[in-house]
Design a protein that fits this description.
globular; alpha/beta
């Protein structure tokens, strides 16, 4: 594939597909370390739903680095992702991953959101955005076809990808906005978390300062709220409520896609505060994605006991106005 060739076909200028032709994407968005991988796995147990983890990282973790899928196989040995690549692009070998990642950096970033939504942007950015939208639309459609699902669950969380999908003519976007107390999020980012072998280059999750985490918590959640105000269907779920009352919170999410699945109560997999993880092809995400079998839900609030009081107060002060809106007092 050369720089002059379209990455996956260019759908710019084409009319929007009819509602029945669009791919429904249930996009889990919010701040990392907020319980999104746990939620992703549960949503993947819904009837006619297929969870794929953090799809934004497929190009790096899967195509480029060949890390392990949640099924246990390395990406190039996973039958599911092999068939997805064939249906979407005629095979992953037809994709120049360096070009794709360069394109991704040019359009799919928080700082690019004003350009994504702007009416007056440079033609070069508009062309890049059209190419990227066509590329990922083919990917979502192939996932739906291979899995047989009517809803693709993507827990990427990034606001920028949500804004892109909201404007993609082939995508029917629904948002699940996952929240967690920012002091718990900041504490999680401060910890050393080891990752299973074959799922990362460093063997552990990244760490981030309390100040940067607090700032990102505010900006990420504010951007998601702004997108929802534009008319994209959204359900707000707090991690703490999800663990305490999984049936109630998951039932609210199920209503988001009931019109396309016909399932009002697809929660037979849930048994009290435990659910059966029947398998996943999540390509990236938290370490829990590699587990299968029964998973018990328990509230993680170690930050209340173990987080340094000074850092806890700083995060609380920096996030106070938005934190109060979501009833984190």
């Amino acid at each position: 594939m050369t720089a002059q060739q379209p990455l996956a076909g260019d759908s710019s200028g084409a009319g929007a597909p009819s509602g029945t032709d669009r791919v429904t994407v249930l996009y889990v968005c919010g701040m990392p370390r907020s319980g999104s991988t746990l939620l992703d796995l549960m949503l993947g147990q819904f009837v006619d739903h297929c969870d794929v983890g953090e799809l934004f990282y497929l190009w790096q973790s899967g195509v480029e680095r060949n890390f392990r899928c949640a099924c246990g196989e390395h990406f190039d040995q996973c039958p599911f992702w092999g068939e997805v690549g064939r249906r979407a692009y005629g095979g992953w070998s037809n994709i120049d991953v360096r070009q794709v990642r360069a394109l991704q950096r040019r359009v799919d970033a928080t700082g690019k959101v004003p350009l994504i939504v702007g009416s007056r942007v440079a033609s070069g950015f508009r062309q890049d955005l059209a190419r990227y939208t066509a590329l990922i639309s083919k990917l979502y459609r192939a996932i739906a076809e291979v899995s047989g699902a009517t809803v693709v669950v993507d827990s990427t969380k990034r606001p920028s990808l949500a804004y892109i999908l909201a404007r993609a003519p082939e995508i029917d976007l629904r948002l699940v906005h996952i929240l967690r107390d920012p002091r718990g999020v900041a504490y999680s980012w401060s910890q050393v978390v080891e990752l299973p072998e074959g799922t990362s280059a460093k063997g552990r999750m990244n760490q981030r300062s309390a100040r940067l985490t607090a700032r990102r918590w505010v900006t990420v959640n504010a951007m998601i709220s702004a997108l929802a105000r534009s008319g994209v269907p959204r359900v707000v779920v707090r991690y703490e409520d999800l663990v305490r009352d999984p049936r109630g919170e998951l039932g609210r999410i199920a209503a988001l896609t009931a019109d396309v699945t016909g399932q009002v109560d697809p929660l037979s997999f849930l048994h009290g505060t435990e659910f059966e993880q029947a398998g996943s092809h999540a390509v990236a995400g938290g370490r829990i994605r590699m587990r299968s079998g029964p998973i018990a839900l328990s509230l993680d609030e170690k930050w209340r006991r173990e987080y340094a009081p000074g850092r806890r107060r700083m995060v609380g002060a920096m996030t106070w106005p938005l934190r109060r809106r979501y009833d984190y007092r």
